[in-house]
Amino acid sequence: MIEPPIEKLLKKVNGNVYLLCCLVAKRAKHLALTIPAELETSEKKEISIAAEEVYNGDVVPNKLI
User: Fold this and answer.
1) 15 class by beta-carbon count within 10 Å (0-12 exposed, 13-18 middle, 19+ buried)
2) Which tens digits make up the pLDDT trace of 25-63?
3) Contact between 15 and 61 (Cβ < 8 Å)
4) Distance between CA 59 and CA 61 in Å, rounded?
């Protein structure tokens, strides 16, 4: 099962699938570049961490469309 659920993530970006995809991908790439050593020892991949950050409200888009 995917955690957090996609439906709940979409609510964070007003249902905009494209915005959610770009936001999570950009944050995951940033994590991969800034903390690669921590990601190697972590059980979670950067995409999962990025999705959790969006769900928790730690990462938000600049402007919701």
Assistant:
1) exposed
2) 999 999 999 998 888 888 999 999 999 999 999 998 886
3) no
4) 7
pTM here? 0.85
Judge whether residue 5 has pLDDT over 90: yes
Calpha distance 9→7 (Å, rounded): 5
Tokens of 38: 């921590």
Indicate the residue type of 1: M
Query: Cβ of 11: how many Cβ atoms within 10 Å?
Result: 12
- Are 31 and 49 in contact by the 8 Å Cβ rule? The answer is yes
